[in-house]
Amino acid sequence: MSRLIIFGGSYAESDSHTDHTAWPHQVADRMGLELVNHARAGTSVRWSINKLINYHNNDHRVNDHILFFVSDHDALHMMDTEGKPEWAANLTAWIVGTLDPKHPAHRYFDDRAEIMRWIHQHYQEHHTDCQLIQSFLRHMPNQAHAIPCTEDGYAWPYEYNMGDCHDDLTRTRIKHLQGATTLHRRYTADGEHMITMHNHMAPERHTVFAGHITQLLLTGDTTALTLEHMREVSRRTMQHDPTGPYPL
Q: Is residue 91 a part of any domain in this protein?
C-alpha cells in the first residue's frame, strides 16, 4: 500500500487528534494511502529536516507521496522587529551598512546590535535550509513537495503559504487543547457558537485544502495551490464576525 508521508510543524501534525475530517486524513482517504505523519506542533525546520533524512535512510519507498511543511517555531518574520515584519527585509542592508540612517529601523537595530546580527544569521540559515529542502525533494523519485507556512523571505515558486490561510485568531480562541488543536468562538447568522479547530484551520478550510493537496499529489501541478480559494473560505466563515469581513 502506498503511503502519505508528512513532515513539518503545527499546520501538518495529526498526532494530537484522530479527527478524520482534518486534511491529512482526508487526503489519505481520498487517495487510498496509509498516513505516516512525522509532523509535530512547535518544531523547527531543522528538526523536520532531520526527520526527513532519517526517513530517507531507513524507511523510504519509491511509491510514497511526500509533503514537507516548511515552518519555523521562531517566527522569523516577526522576531524582535517591533511587530513590523517589513523591517526584517532591512536587516541585510543594516548589516552591510546601506540602510538609510534616517530609517526608524536603523536606531532600533543599533540598540539591539548583537541580537539583530544573530537574527540575520538565522535568516541566512533558514534560506539555506529552504534551498536544501527543495533540492532534496526534487531529487527523490517520489511525488514530493514543500509547502511554505510563513512569510519567511524565501522565494517560493508559488504564492501560497499557510500563514495566509489560518483561522486560529487570538480574539476568538477560547482554549488551547493539545498540539495544534484549539477551541474557538464562531459567529454565524444564528449567533455565537463554538468549534474545534485542528492545524489552525476552520473545518471548511480542511476540505478545500485537502482538495488542493490531493490534486497536487495526483498531477504534480503546483497551480493546484490556489490561494484565492483559501481566501474565499475566510470570507465565508467570517462574514458574520463582529469585527467585519475578512480583509483579503
A: no
Whole-angstrom distance, CA of residue 237 vs CA of residue 203: 10
This model's pTM is above 0.70: yes
Grid cell for residue 35:
498516513
Domain that residue 62 falls in:
3-80+126-237
Residues 130-157 pLDDT 10s:
999 999 999 999 999 999 987 777 888 8
d(CA 34, CA 65): 10
pLDDT tens digits along 162-214: 888 889 988 899 999 988 999 999 999 999 999 999 999 999 999 999 999 99
Is residue 29 situated within a structural domain?
yes
Question: To 10 degrees, the CA torsion angle through 201, 206, 209, 211?
Answer: 180
Is 205 inside any structural domain? yes
Give the pairing of strands 34-37 and 3-7: parallel
